[in-house]
Amino acid sequence: MSDFTSNFWSVFITTITLGGIVGCLLLLWFSGKTKAMTQSDNTTGHVWDEDLREMNNPLPRWWVGLFIITCLFGFAYLYLYPGLGSYEGSLKWTQIGQLDKEMAKGNEQVAPIYAAFAGKSVPELAKDAPAMAIGDRLFMNNCAQCHGSDARGGKGFPDLTDKQWNWGGTPDQIEETITKGRTGMMPPMAAAVGSPEDVRNVANYVLSLSGAPNDSVRANLGRAKFVVCAACHGPDGKGNPALGAPNLTSGVFMHGPAVESHIVAMITNGKTGVMPAWDKKFTPEQIKLLTAYVWGKGGGVAPPAAN
Q1: What is the largest CA-CA distance in the chain?
Q2: Is the pTM of this model over 0.85?
Q3: 293, 193 Cβ separation under 8 angstroms
Q4: Residues facing 131 on adjacent strands
Q5: Among 87, 185, 198, 206, fewest CB within 10 Å belongs to which?
Q6: pLDDT tens column, 156-194
Q7: Three-class secondary structure of residue 182 per DSSP
Q8: Rounded distance, CA 84 to CA 13, Å?
Q9: How far is the CA of 11 from the CAs of 14, 15, 67, 93, in angstroms?
Q10: What does DSSP say about strands 182-186 and 271-275: parallel, antiparallel, or unpaired?
Q11: By the 8 A CB rule, do 194 and 256 touch?
Q12: 298: burial class by Cβ within 10 Å (0-12, 13-18, 19+)?
């Protein structure tokens, strides 16, 4: 897809590019045709430092030939590859296309390695040392930037070693999260809750759900207002994996500490978090090994028993 929204810019860039090359060739041609006024000793009459005289010798033929070849190479390159505005080039080359070819070639080369793990379940792979070694490299190169090298996350990024899974911690749910990505959104709810005092009361009730330090009087007052939050987090505050709503009884607050000011800020301002989809980068085999690695870090939920 062209980045140009108007044909003017494509024509403008094409004209400047081709005009520059043609201009170089015309300059060479005119300079070769122009006759300079010379002295009898083939000098132009220009003298510097008393004895340094400018000769009127023609350009070396090898230099002229190389100059012309360079210009012709420029024309050929611009015909084959994109460089003239929205013109795609006769080879239809793109950097994304080249990356896709190199990725496909790399995946083809490593396919025999992943074939050794075919047919194994995620729990089985989690106990397979070679599989986990590959999973570790995949995680370190692609996931550790957010979740940390120890997978314990940080502020705004979930800890993959605990039992708190907003979107579910079974192998299938983790694989779906890695494959498709997730977008978690906590909308600003202060207006729906009520006054600033009501927000503080709800915040204390939320803290009470996990046994965190709270004002019991405010918590009791906030219980009735929590019905606004129950639509996502459930009437008991235990969350809803289908919506990515966290379990408020776990005591895990990913975006800050378990204190009133943080919960008030979350209710007032909301929060949006994005887990990117990785299906365009990883093969299904790589995703399965990465799933086994994450699941095997200790926080994963056992898969449902087979019927």
Answers
A1: 110
A2: no
A3: no
A4: none
A5: 185
A6: 999 999 989 999 999 999 999 999 999 999 999 999 999
A7: strand
A8: 6
A9: 5, 6, 26, 20
A10: antiparallel
A11: no
A12: exposed
